[in-house]
Each structure stands twice: as structure tokens, then as C-alpha cells.
Amino acid sequence: MRAGALADVWVAWPEATSAATSTAGAAAGRTSARQLPEQLADAVEVVAVRQRSAALAGAAGADVEVLVPSGVLPSVLQALAVEADVVLVPVPAAAGSRR
Fold first, then answer.
1. Hey, CA dihedral for 8, 44, 97, 49, is it positive or negative?
2. Per-residue CA distances from 7 to 28, 72, 77 (Å)
3. Strand, helix or coil for residue 28
4. Most buried pick, 28, 41, 50, 83, via CB within 10 A?
5. What is the pLDDT of residues 27-72, one digit of tens each?
6. Phi, psi (deg, nearest 5) at residue 13
């Protein structure tokens, strides 16, 4: 992923997280403590990507900053606070050009 790219933001809530009990899950009749991943935002812009080295952080990877709409910011911050799995899914260039 690179700066300027578009990505969808998805989250998989951990078990026993109050935010994991969504109205969609309740409406679907799901009673499991762990619900299916949910999309929080679509086609957000990547503004920065910083590679992490295994020597400094304990695991190789990257930190990615995205511009998140203010309406979903509380959900994204809650996901980060409870250490949910937040995943960025790249949007194909053709799909991103529809914005």
C-alpha cells in the first residue's frame, strides 16, 4: 500500500467487547460472542505508510495512516482501544476512480 491509494476499513471485534454487539448482528439473530467482521469505511485515502523493522517493534510490518470520515472515527478509535483486528483492504484503481 502507498500514500494516495484507497482502501476500505474493516474490523473484527474481539470477544466480549461491547462494541461487538451491533444492531445488525442482533437483527440477524446472531448470539455468538464474536460476530463477523464489519466494514467501517469505504475508499478512504492512505496518507502515510511507515515500515516497521522487526528489531525495533518486535514484528515486521507497517503503520498506515488513513483519512477516516468523522462519522466512523469513534468506531475506529474504539476498535484500536480494544485491540480489535483493523484491516485495510485495497480498493482497485478502477473502483477508486468512481469517487
1. negative
2. 27, 14, 17
3. coil
4. 41
5. 555 445 568 999 999 999 999 999 877 665 566 678 899 999 999 9
6. -70, 145
Torsional sign, CA 96, 86, 73, 36:
positive
Residue 84 burial (CB count, 10 A): 19
Phi, psi of 11 (to 5 degrees): -135, 140
Q: Which amino acid is at 59?
A: A
Q: Taking a C-beta distance cutoff of 8 angstroms, is the pair 42, 7 a contact?
A: no
How, if at all, do strands 61-67 and 38-52 pair?
A: antiparallel
